[in-house]
Amino acid sequence: MQSGAPALRSVLTVKGQSCEVSLEPERAALCWRELRPRRGRERSRAAELCLTRVLHRARALTGGLKHQFPPGGHVVPVSEIISVEDADAGETYHHGSNWQHMCKPHAFTVHYVQRMKKHRWSCKAVTFWCSDEVLCCQWLKALGDLLDRQTCRPKHLLVYINPYGGKKKGKQIYERKVAPLFSLAGISTEVIVTEFANHARDNLYEVNLDKYDGILCVGGDGMFSEVLHGLIGRVQKDTAIDPNDPDVVLSPCDIRIGIIPAGSTDCVCFATVGVNDPVTSALHIILGDSQVLDVCAVHRKKRFLKYTVSNLGYGFYGDILKSSEKNRWLGPARYDFAGFKMFLSRNWYEGTVSFQPAKWAAGSPRDLTRCRSGCDVCRQSIAQLEEHQRAQARGLVRNEQEDDWKTIKGKFMAVNAANMCCACPRSPKGLSPAAHLADGAADLILVHKCSRINFLRHLIRHTNKKDQDPPFRDKIRYIFFF
Ligand SMILES: Nc1ncnc2c1ncn2[C@@H]1O[C@H](COP(=O)(O)OP(=O)(O)OP(=O)(O)O)[C@@H](O)[C@H]1O
Predict the structure, then answer these.
(1) pLDDT tens digits for 421-438?
(2) What ipTM did this prediction achieve?
(3) In terms of Cα–Cα distance, which of 442, 426, 434 is closest to 469?
(4) Set 213, 221, 319, 474: catalytic member
């Protein structure tokens, strides 16, 4: 709602109870609160109000609260309203002690996001009954106008479903949990159920991307990677950029990719949303939430190999991925099986790792900050990186030279480059909990050769929500490495 617009305030009925309902311009929020507590509930209501006030005061003292709930009331930010519609004709509502049947109700239903525990979201609905048709139309128009101003929300999506990812439930998850929410939000879709590996990637080279506000993949990290390769590859092809040149500046692609988790690890979804829940992801997509991600390009002898946004693993983790692919029939359990096998084999690799530390990056791989949407560390790092690049272009600072590179020689059990924390349900904090989603750098994690018991401790620490800094592990924030 534009600031300066008059507030809309009426007495409407919610679940048979008179409520003061308002659309508040300053807070861009829909608020409602019962006027009179139900009979018989006065005492508990008074206690509840008292408790709410105490909580309210405690929250005010402990800092800002996103949803400032008035005592006994509800506040829904307009940005979290999914849709508003005429209530179904023929609904029954309770007024006082009489049940009334309204054939043509003057009522509207607001569907909105309810925030649950642990980053989970669900869709809730509330119906407001109006005294007459004019009032009902006034509310529908005011809310509809506000929703029309949410311009970042997608209207038309291209959806790729991998029917073989994870527990092979991608199609079912989309049809049962996601499609109904999209239809509620008025999002139209074109759905392609993939028929073979790289179907989505190849298709993205051909489709008319201008038709869509976003590409959606229903699957796991492999499916996301497929769509990422298709989209980045397509944009480079259209702009005649050669991805084989490691020094080339890639053309940015402004179309967004959404993920509905239906894979085995769902690390990209978990690290960006905080949970791998299809409904939560669908609601974030509907509201138009977005998160910029660092993409790392991997080259070998001047040939482009792959893009990655999560973990690039050599040694233990690389071996697990390779081995687990052979046992895909085991489903998500293939990672446990491959991990156990690799742990027993205790392979190590001798070599030299060269890297260029990201001097301009704010934050450190060992600090306690956690990257979230709107992260200050990412914003500051990118600003410093851009400043550094501008200074280089003007000749104010020298270009990177040989001595900017560092090398570490040794015997390694694992060499990992974490572009993000790489959290997943098995490792809720991830491989590198302080890694950032969009700071232009990645964390290099070197696990030196160590005893089997120390390596087991290292693996267990990943699963028990703690980071670890044993003497056999190096952690460096870098920009390039060999
Ligand atoms: N129709 C298909 N048949 C066979 N493979 C497919 C098909 N569609 C996609 N794929 C491939 O399946 C691979 C794995 O898919 P996905 O990532 O969805 O599941 P997952 O491997 O179980 O999950 P995660 O990557 O999170 O561990 C992807 O690399 C993708 O290229």
Answers:
(1) 888 877 888 888 888 898
(2) 0.96
(3) 434
(4) 221
